[in-house]
Amino acid sequence: MNKLLEVTDLKKIFGGSVRAVDGVSFSLAERETLALVGESGCGKSTVSRLILRLTNPTQGTIRFEGKDITRISQGALKSIRREIQFVFQDPFSSLDPRMTAGEIVTEPLSVHGLVRNGRERRSTAERLLQAVGLSSKHVDNWPRQFSGGQRQRLGIIRAFALGPRLIVADEPVSALDVSVRSQVINILQDMQEDKGTAYLFISHDMATVRHMADRVAVMYLGKIVELAPKTSFFAGPQHPYAEALLSAVPASHPSKRRRRILLAGDPPSPISIPSGCRFHTRCPIAQDVCKSSEPPLKPVADNHLAACHFAQAWPIASRLKDVDAPTEGGRFDNVPGDLQVCR
Q1: Which residues contact 189 (CB under 8 A, 6 or more apart)?
Q2: Is residue 218 part of a domain?
Q3: N or C, where is the chain less crowded by C-beta within 10 Å?
Q4: Where are the beta strands (DSSP E) in 223-302?
Q5: How far is residue 255 from each of residues 51, 53, 314, 322, 335, measured CA to CA in Å?
Q6: Where does the ABC transporter domain start and stop, copy by copy (predicted)?
Q7: CA distance from start to end of the chain
């Protein structure tokens, strides 16, 4: 597949000392879904804001369709933002309470001059609402008149209105009730299949990640520590932090109980990052070399990268054979609860 997005050595330092993103590199192909996972504060959302150019990077490059967009002007960004859209986590605060549903979903079209008059805008709004299972009668409703799931549908179709090539979805279902989460996930999948859009999917819900993603990137303290195809990742993660994330996924039956890996302490501050491997202060297998030498993100299997001195040297996969998640492929019928991987 052709590379749609290429991120190289991306860094963002706030206030001269807070290394929120510290050398992140990855690519995203057309029609692909890359899941970005990790604890709160690891830099996932900052990466998304950098890609959207809502925040300027300190260092590194962002290429979209081969074009360097890292430092292009605000005027040039207008055409890029037609191709890269965002789905926010909170489906209420992301919608303007002073605008009707029809105005919300067609606002991007108006900004880019793609609707000519009020009649065309209204008919387009009705068509967009129907595309995500809402009624055309909802076109004049206010955001407060919708449920959380319905509001998120508005956010999704607003993002799709311009026909973008890439959508950055930052925890798009975490604020929703379990009963409606599967509906929104299915809408995202249907829209991707219909439009051919690529997703950068940010989530802490590993069950949803397993269902949605083609590849998984695990972030810890501003860096990617593991990057692998979904099948390879869930069959056997090669970084101890990734194993700890998966060990927190609840099994659906008592017979599938497994060892839970509890990480000691909290993540270090991005103001004072540990020397060597930045995970060594919480790692259950850390050795002296981990304290002095930072491991590079390197291949450990086919298309499977990990930043660990002891990748493949300890029996990870044997402890994860019973990880329970929705069936790969197809659609969600029952979505597990909020599987927070870190507490």
Answers
A1: 212, 331
A2: yes
A3: C
A4: 223-229, 298-301
A5: 43, 48, 24, 9, 20
A6: 5-246
A7: 37
